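Cast an eye over my tokenised protein here and flag anything odd:

===
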Amino acid sequence: MSYQTLQVEWQDAVCIARIHRPEANNAINGQLVEELHAVLTACEQSPQVAVLVLEGSAQVFCSGGDFEAIHAAAESPPPEPLYDLWARMATASVVVVSVARGRVNAGGIGFLCASDIVLADRSTTCGLSELLFGLFPAMVLPFLIRRVGLQKAHYLTLMTRPIGVDEALSHGLVDAAEDDAQALLRKHLLRLRRLSKPAIARYKSYLAQLTGEPERSRETALAANRDLFRNPEIQRNIRRYVTEAKFPWEP
């Protein structure tokens, strides 16, 4: 399909979706959400795509909701598609990697928090400005708390100020940062390209069931472990490694 708010590239096991609304500082509107849903669906339906990379521009990853569009329409867009998009990113059968450069604000933080891995360069700033307008980040918070914990999410929401990449790293909002985010992405893709799509799907489905309390997760963990070692594909991979000293991706 053709996209109005995205630039999309397909590179074997990797799909790169770049937010491209320069006239609106890469703000979120209904069209962007709809097109990202479509890209995610295409990634999940493709047998070879295992990684979805989400990027913005060098200056702005995503500035949050499109206030100009909201003002013109005199009402906010339906929130369900955006929340559902973040929930899909968190549980999708592909690894979702956000690569942040420049400004990340408000709803843009939601994209980071719904991702499996967040990479950034040194220009990146992250902020939640909602309370300055009498709002609060209602839809972002469930994903932000999952990533950084309740108190850090609470602090970031109350302070409303942008934080630099070092502070974002210390909070756990960003996983890794270097001067060149694209070079950092290439390093990560060297490993991520080797993951099989079924393995990613099994892992993320299992992760979504965990409570963070080992005793409450005991039966879930034991059942998952039994199922893994009964899986014929996994048994073949182990047998090949033992007999031929080869990893699954090696010819």
Q: What stands out?
A: Residues 16 and 24 are 21 Å apart (CA to CA). Residues 30-45 form the longest helix (16 residues). The beta strands are 6-11, 14-19, 51-55, 60-62, 95-100, 103-105, 117-121, 125-127, 163-164, 176-178.
